[in-house]
Amino acid sequence: MQTQIISTGFEDDAKDAVRQAADLLRAGEIVALPTETVYGLAADAFNAAAVAKVFEAKERPSFDPLIVHLPKPSALEEVADLPEEIAGPVKKILNKFWPGPLTIILPKKDTIPDIVTSGQPTVAVRHSKDPVFKRVIKEVGGPLAAPSANRFGSISPTSAAAVEEELGGRIPLIVDGGACSEGLESTIIRVEAAEPKSRIFILRAGPITKEDLREFGKVEFAPRLSPDDGQPEAPGQLASHYSPRTPLRLLESPNDFKPEDGKRYALLSYRNQPKDGYLELTEYEKIAVLSPGSGKLPEAAVRFFFLLRELDESGVDEIIAEPIPNRGLGVAIRDRLSRAAYSTVE
After folding, report:
1. What is the pLDDT of residues 88-146, one digit of tens each?
2. CA 186 to centroid of chain Cα atoms
3. Whole-angstrom distance, CA of residue 130 vs CA of residue 44
4. What stretches of the chain show up as alpha helix (H) in DSSP?
5. The dihedral sign for the CA sequence 19, 23, 25, 30
6. Could you tell me which residues are beta bridge partners of residue 67?
7. Choice among 75-79, 215-219, 226-230, 315-319 with the minimum mean pLDDT
8. What is the pLDDT of residue 346?
9. For residues 300 and 294, what is the distance between their CA atoms, to the nearest angstrom?
10. Could you tell me where the DSSP H helices lie in 225-328?
11. Contact 177, 130 (CB under 8 A)
12. Is the pLDDT confidence value at 228 over 80?
């Protein structure tokens, strides 16, 4: 299969890209589309045969459910039920964060094929704010199932070029909408009724932080699944994920690292500050900096997957990663780093 890439840099190109993408999706094909988080591999969420192509192209295990994207918030009632006991807080949360990088787990309706939810009685639902994605899904006129547009477990793509590297020859079309504005996958939550405030469980950390959600209830992080814990409730819960081919080690202190003779290292630095103690640990083959200078977590999040992919392709023997502050967006970045490091250990 030859993969076509269409840019949306000019309006005429954008119109053509939207038309071709929508035509393919309505015909039961799969298409890579930009979102504000990472590029997604989309299929008609009501078409089980189309969704099966997503799993095949990604080499994704059938037990890992997909996110369903909505063309508009009111379409939620087409794919999910909203239990009365949590309707109040859920509506407030969605009014605040949709469209945007927030996914919520709700009881699914029979309109959603079991393959989308991996047989689970719940469905993960999101409403993206990316302008290209919004135009395509509006043209299609219905929900799209769309996990990240990469091979399962590898580094998530934040550019069309990264999608081509991962899935070129496996899918018919990549819509190039430029670099993703957030750079990390959506936050995934589940809401439970409780008094005096609802409980909000974060199943996957992302751009919408624990601090952002606190006004709507008591917020907790759900435990990450190990390989023996069984089927995940939502996408992105597996301990091993977001992994470069090159082994990666996440340090908590400069004292944790002793270089081995003859081994070539690269450094994923948070802010490239000598006082942090990581720059002089060895003579690195390559240093990539997430947020030069003072260290800004939103900038680090946007650059994270791009730089991780760059280091993975540099030919070194091991990637060393500096620790990231465990607050705000830093929680989501550390989550991705620890999963990549876990994959290396495994």
Report:
1. 999 999 999 999 999 999 999 999 999 999 999 999 999 999 999 999 999 999 999 99
2. 6
3. 18
4. 11-26, 48-58, 76-79, 84-97, 114-117, 131-140, 160-167, 210-213, 297-312, 329-345
5. negative
6. 124
7. 226-230
8. 42
9. 11
10. 297-312
11. yes
12. no
Nearest to 143 by CA among 133, 151, 152, 153: 133
Mean pLDDT (whole number) for 45-51: 98
Q: Please, is 283 exposed, middle or buried when counting C-beta atoms within 10 Å of its C-beta (0-12, 13-18, 19+)? A: exposed
The C-alpha atoms of residue 229 and residue 182 are separated, in whole angstroms, by 30
User: Is the separation of the CB atoms in 320 and 266 below 8 Å?
Assistant: yes
* pTM metric for this prediction: 0.94
**Residue tagged 């890992």 (tokens):** 64
Task: Render 197-233 in DSSP notation, one character per residue.
Answer: S-EEEEEE--SS-HHHHGGGSEEEEPPPBPTTS-S-S
* H/E run at residue 250: strand 248-250
Model pLDDT for residues 170-191, shown as the tens digit of each residue: 999 999 999 999 999 999 999 9
Chain segment 51-66, per-residue pLDDT in tens: 999 999 999 999 999 9
Q: What is the DSSP string of 14-60?
A: HHHHHHHHHHHHHTT--EEE--SSS-EEEEETT-HHHHHHHHHHHT-
For the four alpha carbons of 3, 8, 13 and 18, in that order, the dihedral sign comes to: positive
Q: Residue 263 to residues 64, 266, 280, 313, 345: CA-CA distances in angstroms?
A: 36, 10, 16, 16, 18
Largest CA distance in the chain: 62
Residue in 10, 12, 16, 9 with CA at minimum distance from that of residue 173: 16
Closest to 188 measured CA to CA, from 107, 124, 106, 99: 124
Measure the CA–CA gap between 104 and 188, rounded to whole angstroms: 6
Average pLDDT, the chain: 94
